[in-house]
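Hi support team,

I've been running sequence recovery on a batch of backbones for a student project. Most finish fine, but this one hangs at about 90% for roughly twenty minutes before it completes. I'm not sure whether the input is malformed or the queue is just slow. I've pasted the structure tokens below so you can try to reproduce it. Let me know if you need the job ID as well.

Thanks,
M.K.
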């Protein structure tokens, strides 16, 4: 920026260099810009202050010389003053346009885009950088108007499946109410409903860094088929392995189980239909189950499982109690 300012001051800046200078100014913090411009101004102060006696002598000599200036030269001096005035006006106009454009850009960047999914079906979103996002029901994704200009940051409330377009120079950050997920390019699922007791990130491929934003701040890294969970009650950040099947089952039109333990089947159904299971007998929880469900209703699926295992169930709100028959 210093080199470009010197070229502009000397009147030797090219058109493309001027564009670069404008872009750098737009991206620079106001305090930093103030410091840089002051340094540029001070760089032309290459002489020390003159004594007051010397200043008076110079002014006296200048007045004496001006009396002796011929009329023609006085006219030249007059037009020179006008030319200098025009240059000052042009410079002021450039500065006003420069900082007006900067203010306009800051105003635009402060505005945000909010995308809300419906209450009955997931929604698909394509971000400006090519990142694909699938939002579960009752979820919200928010990002700034200048997304991708300096960094890539979004805020999520609800659940979303991210397939991030890789960019080594610009990290991608998903902000939730309790933790930030940072990647360069990868695929992962985030469960971050604000009314739930936990927030979760399940990694499908790539690498992810998760840090809790609440005090005390903690950080964990995950590899594929691992998930990081934040417990809102204890503040604990934990890492465990997962097949990511339960975490991403909400994206499928059908639910497929192949030799899955029954406790995993219930876990998938909990995530798919936003319910909680309570089982009075856990002796059959590791029993392997194979089946495909196309049903859209949790009761229809439970009726099929009930025929196979012979249990009774009762639903109260979002809680389903399962009792094994004697």
């Amino acid at each position: 920026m210093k080199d470009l300012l010197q070229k502009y001051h000397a009147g030797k800046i090219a058109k493309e260099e001027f564009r670069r200078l404008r872009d750098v100014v737009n991206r620079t913090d106001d305090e930093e810009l103030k410091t840089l411009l002051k340094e540029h101004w001070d760089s032309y102060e290459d002489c020390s202050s003159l004594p007051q006696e010397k200043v008076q002598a110079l002014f006296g000599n200048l007045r004496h010389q001006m009396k002796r200036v011929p009329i023609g030269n006085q006219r030249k001096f007059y037009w020179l003053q006008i030319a200098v005035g025009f240059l000052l006006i042009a410079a002021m106009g450039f500065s006003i346009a420069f900082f007006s454009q900067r203010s306009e850009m800051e105003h635009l960047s402060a505005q945000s885009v909010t995308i809300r999914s419906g209450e009955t079906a997931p929604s698909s979103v394509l971000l400006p950088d090519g990142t694909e996002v699938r939002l579960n029901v009752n979820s919200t994704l928010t990002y700034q108007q200048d997304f991708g200009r300096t960094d890539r940051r979004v805020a999520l409330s609800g659940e979303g499946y991210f397939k991030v377009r890789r960019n080594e120079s610009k990290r991608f950050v998903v902000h939730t109410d309790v933790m930030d997920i940072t990647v360069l390019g990868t695929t992962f699922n985030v469960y971050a409903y604000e009314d739930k007791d936990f927030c979760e990130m399940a990694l499908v491929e790539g690498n992810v860094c998760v840090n809790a934003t609440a005090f005390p701040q903690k950080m964990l890294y995950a590899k594929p088929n691992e998930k990081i969970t934040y417990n809102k009650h204890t503040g604990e950040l934990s890492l465990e392995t997962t097949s990511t099947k339960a975490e991403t089952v909400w994206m499928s039109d059908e639910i497929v189980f192949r030799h899955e333990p029954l406790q995993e089947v219930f876990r998938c159904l909990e995530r798919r239909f936003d319910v909680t299971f309570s089982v009075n007998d856990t002796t059959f929880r590791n029993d392997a189950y194979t089946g495909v469900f196309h049903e859209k209703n949790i009761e229809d699926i439970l009726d099929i499982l009930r025929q196979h295992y012979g249990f009774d169930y009762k639903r109260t709100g979002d809680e389903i109690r399962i009792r094994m028959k004697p």
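--
Follow-up from support: It reproduced on our side and the slowdown came from queue contention, not your input. DSSP finds eight helices and 18 strands in the chain. No action needed from you.
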